[in-house]
Amino acid sequence: MASINVVFLDFDGVLNTPMWYDNNGKLQIRYNFPKHGKVNNWQACQWLSKFCKERGYSIVVSSTWRKEGLATCKKCLYNGGVWESIPIIGMTPITHTKRGYEIQQWLDNQARSGVKVKRWIIIDDVDETMSDEQKRKLVLCRE
User: Fold this and answer.
1) FRET pair for 102, CA 20 to 30 Å: which of 6, 79, 113, 121?
2) pLDDT surpassing 70 at residue 33
3) What is the β-pairing status of strands 19-23 and 26-30?
């Protein structure tokens, strides 16, 4: 049975953070979107990459950006600074329910297909959709 370690990764508020800019004396916030071709927080991408490389984790996209497809998500992560040596192995199902349910469904699907998820964590900026077990494995980011 294959064994993997997984990071369930949200983008907005984690690797795609608000960037402040001056607009004629008024501070405004700008985010990147999939159409920009990358997430905007290069430093956070470096930290994530270092963690994944040193601890043997692969990425599963749980961000709403996954609605644009896995290829677009990979491009946005790699263009934003995630090391290309870090495997991005999939995305959670799009069920239009809470993120925690989608993560659990992905884990259940792996178990049914004979893949053992040895260790997993969630990196997200929202926790209200998570079960108690998921909250224990959550790295909660704040903008």
Assistant:
1) 79
2) yes
3) antiparallel
